[in-house]
Structures are given as C-alpha cells and as structure tokens.
Design goal:
Elements: H1 10-21, H2 25-38, E1 43-49, E2 55-60, H3 67-72, H4 100-106, E3 109-115, E4 122-128, E5 131-138, E6 143-149, H5 156-160, H6 165-182, E7 187-192, E8 195-200, H7 205-213, E9 222-227, E10 231-237, E11 250-254, E12 257-259, H8 262-272, E13 284-290, E14 295-296, E15 307-308, H9 311-328, H10 352-360, H11 392-407, H12 424-429, H13 479-482, E16 504-506, E17 510-515, E18 518-523, H14 524-542, E19 547-557, H15 560-568, H16 570-576, E20 579-582, E21 587-594, H17 602-616, H18 624-636, H19 646-657, E22 672-676, H20 677-682
Parallel strand pairs: 1-7, 11-13
Antiparallel strand pairs: 1-2, 2-6, 3-4, 3-6, 4-5, 7-8, 9-10, 10-13, 11-12, 14-15, 16-17, 17-18, 18-22, 19-21, 20-21
Length: 685
C-alpha cells in the first residue's frame, strides 16, 4: 500500500492557520495594533481603505527590528516573547504565539519598513502569499510601517464571505477601541478613506474614555478600585440612569488584554442591585491586574477568553469593588423619610415612629415597595446589612406576599350585604391610579389604623353610598391584576356585553376586553409595538414614510461608528421619516422624525436606534428592513405610564387585530392572553 500522509508546504499550512487568526480585516488590525503596543510605541496610526479590503496600514514609533528579526518575524512560531514552557504562565505581552504575521502574509500582499533608532538604515520586505519578493536596506523613520494590501487576494472564497464595508468597518472600530482603551498612555489615530475617525492623544484613562465616546460621558464616570493580595480591580463605571439597552459598551481587561466574560458581567450588573432599568446594561471599563500564573489565556484563537484558577474569588472581588463605587458616589436611590415610599401612590405613609419600631422588630412587611415603574423606589442593598440579608428572590417573594395581603381583602371572601363599606376607602387608596372609581364589592384596611397596615384589619362601619348611574369599571392598583384575576365580584352575576365600550385599562399596563369565551388580556406596550412594526415595515417597503418636521432642528453628536452607520443607512432612515444633514465631524442636525412617533426625545431616539442596529449586526440573521422596523418599533412603543381614553383603547385594539399577526410581537413575545370562563371560575375555587 502506498503511503498517503505527507507534510504540507509552508504556504498551505499558513493559509490554514490564517483561517483561525485572520477571520476578517478587523483581525489584522487587532494583531498589528497589539504588536505595536508590545514594541513600546508611544504613537500608533491606523489607515484603512474600503474597510480593510484594499489597504490596512499601521505606523508606529516603537523599537523597530533588525534586518534578521524583520525576516524571522514572518516565519511560523517565531516570537521574541517565549523561551521556555514556563514562560506560558508568565505572559505579560499581547502577542506570544508567533503566528500573526505568518498567517497574514499567507493571504495578503505585505510591505514592511522597519528601523531601530540606533541604526542608520532600515529594512524593506515585500511578501505576497508567503513568497518573499524583495528584501533590501532603505532609509526610513524609526519604528515599523506595515502595509497590508488586497486581503484574501489568493483566497477568493474568503473574500466573498466578507460583509459590507459598513459592517467590516464597525468591527475594525471595535478592535481599535479595545486596544486604545487598554493603553491610554499611547496616542492612537484612525483614518478611513482619508477621513479621520479618531484622534486620541495620550493621557489618563478618564480622558481616553471621554475622547472616545463623547463629552456626555464625563458626567457619568465614577472611579472604581479594590486592591487585594490576589487581584486588583480598577477602572470606571457609569451611572444607572445612563445605562443602555444595547450591550456594547462594557469592557473587561485582564493584564491590559481585552476579554469577554459573562460571569464577571453578571457580577457587575448584580452590584447595581435593582438600580438599573429592566433590560439595561451599565457602562464600565474595568481592569483586572492578576499574577499571570493564575490565568490561562491560551484557550481561544483570538485570546478574548481566559480562565481563572479561582473564578469565584475574582467574581466576589469584582462585585465588592463595583458596590463600593456605587455606594461611594451615591449612585443608588437614597431613602427619603419625607417622600411617599409605599407601594401605592395613594397610600399615606405611616408615622416615622411606627416605621422605626417596625424595622427594629425585624418585620418583613415594613419594607417599602412600589407598584409601578414611575414610583419612587428606595433601595436597601443586600450588601449594606452583611451576610444575614435575604436573597433577592426571597425578598421579592415576601414583597409579593405583602402586596397580596394588602390587596387581597377584596378577593379573599365575599362580604355580607349589611356590612358593605363606603367607597371613600377606594378613592383614598387608589388616588391617581384609577380614574373614576365605582362602587366596590369589598374594602381594604385604612392605613391610619393601629397595627401593621399590611396585615388584616376589620373594616370600619360606614353608610353605603348609592352607585353611580354610569360609572367606568374600577381599575384596581393591586397585584391581583397581575395574577389575571377578574375585577368582577363573585356575588355579581350580571352578564358582560361583548362591546368595545367595555375595554378596561389596568394599571396603565394591560387592556381587558370581554369576548364570548371569557376575557382577553392585552399587553398595552407590546400591542403598540406590533402596530408600529407593521407600519414601519410598510414604510420601508413602499418607501413612503411620512416625516414630522421639527420646529427647532436638533443637533446630535454620535460616536464615529454610529455616525458611519447612519451614513450607510441614510436611504432607509429617510424612508422611515427621519430627515437629517451632516454638520461637521460625527455630527448631524435632525430636521424631521417619523410622523408615527409622538412625545419622544429626538436625539435619544435617533442615537438609541443606531446603537440597537449596531448591536444587532451579526447577531440576528435579518435583512436590513426587518432589523430597522423591529428596532424602531421597540424603541418607540408607548411606556407603561400612558393613561388611555375610551377612544384610544378602541383604536389600539382595532389596529392590533388589523395586523397580520396580532398575537405576537415581531420578536415572538405574546401580546394577548385569553382567560376562558372555566379558567376564571377555577381561580375562585
């Protein structure tokens, strides 16, 4: 039998290795920037053409290389960082494998000029597809100047798999930002098609963050630091109110190397402890300094994932550092004894002495809670009271039980006819939550009575009042609504007409509509999102979106990556109804917004839409129209604070059921829930 196994030529082996190291132009930028940092450069310039397809040029003023080192740098596994296997556990440099230049040279045309400061002449090397075309002595500046031309010129299949220029450029900017943040003492600049994207002078980390992300970040930066014998954490975190929906401004650096670590991200988010809006992510740039012997960075081709020998300790130290910064800068809401801290806006607080006594007795029901997103919500972090504090899930459970007790008196048992209370209690308790209150089948304890107001109390006798002739159905501000319990009393057996006039709004969150088989519960915000999605999708498809002109045009300054994205999507944004013009570097003037959007901050809407589109790039396999319609619909849907009139409720329901798919949002979340008569009856058994 003939032997069939043979060694591959170096050129083919390098092309195979390039499949892991060089995935796209951004990979080349990352590897070369890290080489410049390792060469102790004080200034690095990046020049890109056509998002790196035609040219990537990196110019630095580092130590440079000798003629022999310049030639050896393009050999596989040739490196100056490692001499023995023990060095793998003492790595402080960015590069160490010796694969980057060899892999890049296998799939591109390279021209390198390099010179050491103490030498008179430098070296020029030209390589195409791993073949050396020229090597000669030249006169050049100290440092290294690398030109990468026609990436993937000899691998057409790889070149065809590259995305559009806007997508590839965003990846390049992401890699540039990570290296620039990790090395604020180095000056960086980035040019794309002769246009300056970034010009970052050397300085402190705080200045680097402001120069990179904008002046608006100056007010939200708060220093964070924690030193232990095992690990040191330092950096900056953002304020909770500045958190964004898109998760693209979170940066971890371990020994100045950017990493992605969901476990540590969970520690940071957990440290904010309820101060973040739902679904939002805080801004942070955090550095972890640790002995290299405690980590393994050689587990991923791009070295963006590492392993700690004691992840739990790092997790705990990270959470403690962020919590300390949150408490030090008063980023979480503070307890104000003069404000209303009860779970309903209409309930008057107990006297301060009663609160103090309840807290001393350790009553779980004395904790202040809220019932809506707009209510003041004082936070008592678990770390403030030591290890004996209850977990979040237990605290939530106790709070839910307390709310059920407070609102459950109307649903727990039927009341006797001769002991019917006055409706004044309802008006006092739910003032500002429900509009016109009608007669109530039950009562709740008045908050000023003696004892704990969350516990059971006897109803005070009162003279019944005659019911109103035409009263709107009651909207109860209690957790009973969230449990999908009918608002009708078990004693009342009056049939409900199936009519649009009987649509009830609950807590400004849900709509309750009678149907033949029972009741239909509609999520108000999701229904609006579904309607807006259909309208935005139609506008993008037909290219006829209506625009509402602004009386006073708004000026907005964006991050370079978002500015470039807006230029690439200009036609689609115009079809939606946005009208904007360029006004200097990274700045637009907004003259019009989609007519379907009402009551939104134009600058925030535009910036958040671009951030959402950037975050969705590569994560969702959607076409551009689908992605834009989804993102804008989610950003523009009404909040849970809108009180709708009867006409608005009718219009919302009618428009919802005119949709092709009224049961689900564009992302697959349910919009409606049917409460059948059998299910409702089962709730009272």
């Amino acid at each position: 039998m003939l032997n069939v196994i043979q060694l591959l030529p170096d050129s083919i082996a390098n092309q195979i290795a390039a499949g892991e190291v060089v995935q796209r132009p951004a990979s080349v930028v990352k590897e070369l920037l890290e080489n410049s940092v390792d060469a102790k450069a004080k200034s690095v310039q990046v020049i890109v053409r056509e998002a790196g397809r035609n040219l990537i040029q990196i110019v630095d003023d580092g130590v440079g290389m000798t003629e022999t080192d310049a030639r050896m740098s393009f050999e596989r596994h040739a490196t100056s960082k490692i001499r023995s296997s023990d060095d793998l556990f003492r790595i402080r440099t960015m590069g160490f494998r010796g694969e980057a230049l060899a892999s890049i040279a296998a799939v591109a045309q390279i021209e390198m000029r390099t010179r050491r400061a103490e030498e008179e002449l430098g070296t020029l090397i030209r390589i195409e597809g791993s073949d050396i075309k020229a090597q000669e002595a030249i006169s050049c500046l100290p440092g290294t100047n690398l030109l990468i031309k026609n990436l993937f010129f000899n691998v057409p299949a790889r070149r065809n798999f590259l995305k559009s220029n806007s997508v590839e450029m965003r990846h390049i900017i992401d890699e540039f930002q990570r290296v620039a943040l990790a090395n604020p003492e180095v000056a960086f600049s980035l040019f794309h098609n002769d246009q300056e994207i970034y010009n970052l002078p050397s300085g402190k980390l705080s200045r680097r963050i402001v120069d990179m992300f904008g002046k608006s970040y100056r007010e939200q930066l708060n220093f964070c630091e924690e030193q232990t014998p095992y690990v040191t954490v330092h950096g900056y975190i953002g304020k909770p109110e500045s958190a964004k929906k898109a998760r693209n401004e979170q940066f971890f650096f371990v020994n100045n190397r950017f990493i992605k670590h969901n476990y540590l991200h969970h520690a940071v988010v957990g440290a904010y402890e309820g101060t973040l809006p739902e679904g939002s992510h805080p801004f942070y740039v955090l550095f972890i300094d640790i002995d290299p012997s405690h980590i393994d960075i050689n587990i991923h081709p791009t070295k963006t994932e590492i392993k700690f020998d004691d992840e739990r300790s790092v997790y705990a130290i990270m959470m403690a550092a962020v919590r300390k910064a949150v408490g030090l800068y008063n980023l979480s809401p503070s307890l104000d004894f003069d404000s209303d801290v009860n779970f309903l806006a209409g309930v008057r607080p107990k006297p301060a002495s009663a609160d103090i006594n309840a807290n001393r007795n350790g009553s779980a029901d004395s904790k202040p809670t809220t019932s809506g997103p707009g209510s003041a919500r004082p936070i008592s972090p678990s770390w403030a009271s030591g290890a004996t504090q209850q977990p979040v899930n237990e605290r939530t459970s106790l709070r839910n039980e307390s709310l059920d007790k407070a609102a459950g008196s109307s649903f727990d048992m039927p009341r006797k006819a001769d002991h019917k209370p006055s409706v004044n209690n309802w008006q006092t308790l739910y003032e500002g939550v429900a509009g016109n209150a009608g007669p109530s089948p039950g009562s709740v304890a008045q908050p000023e009575e003696k004892g704990d107001w969350l516990g059971p109390a006897k109803p005070a006798p009162a003279t019944p009042e005659p019911p109103a002739a035409e009263s709107e159905p009651i909207t109860l501000g209690s957790r009973a609504n969230q449990l999908q319990v009918s608002l009708e009393s078990p004693e009342q057996d009056v049939p409900v007409l199936v009519d649009d006039d009987n649509i009830v709004q609950i807590q400004n969150r849900y709509l309750l509509a009678p149907i033949k088989s029972g009741m239909l519960l509609i999520d108000q915000r999701r229904a609006h999102e579904r309607i807006l999605y259909d309208q935005f999708h139609a506008s993008l498809t037909k290219r006829n979106g209506a625009s509402q002109q602004l009386l006073f045009p708004k000026t907005i300054t964006l991050m370079p990556v978002d500015f470039q994205l807006a230029l690439d999507l200009r036609d689609d944004l115009t079809n939606l109804g946005f009208e904007f013009d360029e006004l200097g570097a990274n700045t637009f003037v907004i003259r019009g917004v989609p007519a379907l959007i009402m009551g939104e901050n134009e600058e925030e809407l535009f910036a958040n839409l671009l951030a959402q589109l950037r975050a969705d790039t590569g994560r969702l396999k959607l076409d551009r129209i689908e992605s834009m319609a989804r993102s804008l619909a989610r950003r523009s849907a009404m909040r849970y604070v809108n009180r709708l009139s009867t006409t608005e409720r009718k219009a919302l329901v009618n428009q919802l059921f005119a949709s092709a798919n009224p049961s689900y949002t564009p992302t697959g979340e349910p919009v409606t829930v049917v409460l059948s008569l059998d299910k409702i009856a089962g709730l009272f058994r």
